[in-house]
Amino acid sequence: MLLRPPSERDVNRLAAIIAEPAVSRWWGEHDADWVRRELVECEPGWVIVVDDAVAGWLQYTEETDSQYRHVGLDIFLTTALHGRGVAREAIALAIRHFIEQGHHRFTIDPAAENQRAIRAYAALGFKPVGVMRRYERGPDGSWHDGLLMDLLADEFSQRSRGAPTGSAPNDQRHRRENHHSPSDERRGDRLR
Ligand SMILES: CC(C)(COP(=O)(O)OP(=O)(O)OC[C@H]1O[C@@H](n2cnc3c(N)ncnc32)[C@H](O)[C@@H]1OP(=O)(O)O)[C@@H](O)C(=O)NCCC(=O)NCCS
Fold it and tell me: Candidates 3.40.630.30, 3.40.50.300, 1.10.357.10, 3.40.1710.10; correct CATH number of 2-187?
């Protein structure tokens, strides 16, 4: 598996994945225009690639204020790959990358009922901080609770199934700012 920056050619596949009932249940219902506008063109993140096929999306929000430095993460995977440790492997790659960049704290906020997500994140070392009541609106229009979880770098568990070691540090924001940088080419745009 690898993480790589998104491009226009990923829009339809990501839109098809997000439309799968097991994914839209937690991410909401969105069309290809939303995926293009809100994910590919806007949200910093990577396409998750498994066996050369687009398998999902991992996004991050990097807080760079030195007083509150941390990274927020969010993810979806195609249903056929749920329960195989792919999320753990993808998130572990991103966390190792951001630790190398000097980050010490990570957050993630699954729906309080999303037990599969909570178990996957707990296996990486994320701990529940607390329930955020009526935090997000579901596809049915009703508000539901979210569980804020956080992870400190020294609690990060490497027991993600099959996670490879090492990474090639880079990110989408860096790529945009330094598009023609030789050092960028040397590092590559991907995390493996
Ligand atoms: C949530 C998601 C990212 C997790 O990825 P994943 O690759 O399936 O997760 P993993 O295989 O690493 O771990 C899943 C864990 O949940 C457990 N699990 C599987 N189905 C479950 C269920 N119905 N209820 C509770 N736990 C379940 C698995 O046993 C595993 O835990 P274990 O290894 O301790 O036994 C993925 O399922 C997904 O994309 N879901 C749809 C979108 C979504 O919910 N995104 C998260 C938003 S915060």
Answer: 3.40.630.30
Q: Which atom of ligand 1 is nearest to the CA of 90?
A: 7
Q: Check pocket membership of 115 for ligand 1, CB cut-off 6 A.
A: yes
Conformation bin of residue 171: beta by default, left when phi > 0, alpha when psi is -120 to 50:
beta
Which atom from ligand 1 is nearest to the alpha carbon of 160?
A: 12
pLDDT, tens only, 16-35? 999 999 999 999 999 999 99
CA 116 to ligand 1 center in whole angstroms: 3
Averaged pLDDT of the chain: 86
127 vs 64, 149, 151, 161, CA distance in Å?
A: 22, 5, 6, 19
Percent of the chain predicted with pLDDT > 90: 79
Residue 123 CB less than 6 A away from ligand 1: yes
Q: Tokens representing 189?
A: 């745009």
